[in-house]
Here is the input.
Amino acid sequence: MAKKAAANKSRQHVYFFGDGKADGNRHMKDLLGGKGSGLAEMTNAGLPVPPGFTISTAVCTIYYEQKAKIPAAIDREIEQNLKKLEKAAGATLGSTENPLLVSVRSGAKFSMPGMMDTILNLGLNDQAVEGLKNRTKNGRFAFDSYRRFIQMFGNVVLEIGKDAFEHEFEAVKKSTRAKLDTDLNEKALREVVARYKKVVKSKAGRDFPQDPHEQLKMARDAVFRSWMNARAIEYRRIYDIPDHIGTAVNVQMMVFGNTGDRSGTGVGFTRNPATGKKEFYGEFLINAQGEDVVAGIRTPQPIRELEQVMPKAYAQLRQITTRLEKHYKDVQDFEFTIQDERLFMLQTRSGKRTGHAAVVIATDLVAEKLLKPKEAILLVDPESLNQLLAPGFDPDEWKKIPTATKGLPASPGAASGQVVFTADDAVAWTQQGKQVILVRRETVPDDIHGMFVSQGILTATGGMTSHAAVVGRQMGKPSIVGAGALEIAESAKQFRVNGKTVKEGDYVSFDGLTGEVKLAQVASHPSEILQVLNKTLPAKKSVIYQRFEKLLDWADGVRRLGIRANADQPDQAELAYAFGARGIGLCRTEHMFFGEGRIPIVQRMILADNEADRRKALAELLPLQREDFYGVFKGMHGMPVTIRTIDPPLHEFLPKREDLMVDIAKLEATGQSGPELNEKKRLLQRVEQLHEFNPMLGHRGVRLGITYPEITEMQTRAIIEAACRLNKEGMKVVPEIMIPLVGLVKELRDQKAIVDRVAADVMKETGVKIKYLVGTMIEVPRGAETADQIASEAEFFSFGTNDLTQLTFGFSRDDVGKFLRIYQDKKILEKDPFASIDTEGVGAVVRTGVQLGRKTRKDLKLGICGEHGGDPASIHFFDKVGLDYVSASPYRIPVARLAAAQAALSVKVGD
Ligand code: PEP
Ligand code: MG
Here is the structure.
């Protein structure tokens, strides 16, 4: 850290933009944040951007390192840039003739909509406000700007509650008999300003700062502080954005969208971010300031209507944004302000989009020859593909229920659940296993935790680019906004619509693609893509499927890693194959033991106290397992299938000790005796014998095969018999038999001898010769550390990163939930290591296993089958470390295909 701070000192910390030239450019997102680099790039391109400067993210780091202090040298650099800005603007901070007003905005590398703070109209004081009045000849506007500034500054910088200001504002409205805010005249607004200054004095214990330079320093520091507010931290946790990167601060000359009816402000996208359709999309408000649109307080007009109101500004906006899209080769999300019919661009960046839109846009941009397939792959966040697999409503069921109201379709998808009215309730109800719909008048950034757990978000106000809409789309949450017919009484926890009252807990369903809301629970149906894969819908009838497949085909052409699935049923294997898996990386045979009618046989095997009885039970299981394997091999169309011998501790197949004790007590209390009671008692005795203090470290994995070799024998026989039969039928399958939890080469040697012996027997009996492999899981650290020895016996390794994480950290995978969140809150761990591989620790163990294993056996086949196999960040690591394939659950296969392609191109989406 100290070294880094020293390096920072020598660098430029403030980057100017204005007069057609900028210090920065689009490639400087790390330092300037998304907003700063976009402003620089637009300035360089000669677009109408109000001048300003960006204080870099490095200064944010320094601010935190130096305990909320900014070194004098950086202050000087800011002052120099301020001078430059005054020159470019032709106005001076605090001037009574021509005062410069600036906005102070956050802007991190990754956009975090509404999570951090912004201050507008900075520079106003008791003198400058008169200057603004003289220059604009508009006293009302000047004093409205001043009161807004005091309110924002008071709230954000001095941390005074909004209510204190609201209270005074309402009082003045009442005393002047004003109905709307806009009814207040200059005199009344002067009164508001005077009252606001008193609020500041009493609540903050100081006068409202009159020195604009002091205002700027304080605002800058408040923006830096907002990087660490609770909602920003929560947002970064959800989106995996590192805490250390910090935010930049953009200081920019204010332009005003609120000077009258020839002014306005708006936001938009060059394509529809919900559907991906190529259409100019967005909205604007006449006579309003920037924040009004995003905050969702007033419902704005669709952007197309701007054409009628201000045709020239509209044409220029169309031309500029089209140019920006071509320049960035991606959909742009832009902000603009029109001041007295003059257009200014305030932001451009890659637009956030739904998974559906991402696929449509990526394939369209290739069709339009703006991108090559290899580049298009990088436009889609692999995780967002999951949204395309989410269910929709059954159209017949949906039609039957009357539509209660319609809102703006902000984020597609079918949502159904019980109504809650606060984000905290959404979290609490979900924890009780309920599915909820969060209904709000409007959502605010503080609601993020509730939005995250809800099935969908429904708001009464706000437009397609309001907070709820932006965040909903990004999360892939079905969302409807601006459903104005909802009369929401949040405190009474109910709303009225169409003459009906809906209370907390009542069911509501809505379709985020059409905007229809219905007051009932509605069954959903599989997504279009799943319908195609399940062959209930022809591929040629589904446009989105065709695009999805095209994108993944491109990904397949680029990736190096093979993609397999974790599957242990024939239908899972079929689905995984349809999703594009070409092999099974893990078939957990014990899952098959839970199949219908099998548990009693498995229990008989476990309860046997001698080998003969155990063999009898195993003989009953043999044909069932053989059928299982036959089905799985077939479902995978002859692709490689890795089958793991039994792994979990045996008690998992037996009833719980407490349950048995209750049953026995009940039988005894009712005076029953006989075979049932005796059976239960015998079971209890065996359950007690098998009891382990720490079953995860107990009698499981290879240890079972060593103590009960007849289980390995039976499973091998079932696998080889099934494979021989298929080979006879013409499907050449090469089974890969995998021994779990090996830490000693001798364990593997012991089991391999059994496998080889039984396989030879079966081949002799059937007269069919097949090829098969024997390998092991590397999931205990000793296995990785001695991988050179183990590779002398193993023909393949599959890293079991679930157990490997458990054993490397010493965190029980079943109990980690009790403390993980606190570890994350305290920043001891950034991510859940069971979800995304800990590259430093567990990753290092994997790397050792790879290197030692390949030292002994050059052609050792290497894969991973822990949960990390479907996690994009982990897939990047596994690609780098040189594994041959990753194996993930069937639904994660599309994510893994795309992530593997991006890994091969060495780019993470968002970078
Ligand atoms: C693992 O440990 O990573 C693994 C795949 O095995 P299981 O989850 O069945 O223990
Ligand atoms: Mg394991």
Observations:
- Confidence is low (pLDDT under 50) at residues 1-9.
- DSSP finds 37 helices and 34 strands in the chain.
